[in-house]
Amino acid sequence: MAHYPPYTSKYNPIEHRLFPHVSRACQGMIFDHVQTVQYLVARTTTRTGLKVFTTILDKPYKTGRKIAEDFKATMTIVFDDLLPQWNYTAVPEVQVI
What we know:
By secondary structure, this protein is α+β, with helices and mostly antiparallel strands.
């Protein structure tokens, strides 16, 4: 997981390099299907070599899921070397039932 501090998404270099080109690729198009949007975004490139890869997650997002009481206490968190306060990996403990 990678996070930017609050109110700093305007400094996100990925957004500034990517989204103007995605907007240009989608300009004047009608989004009639998710696959149309995926195709338009995936064909986005720049002269400097930026390429976009897309994946559609078609599973429903489940809300209201409950977690174990000791979830945070047993979760292993591995912090990034470069920006540990913002980038980390949460490694859940696998429970065999």
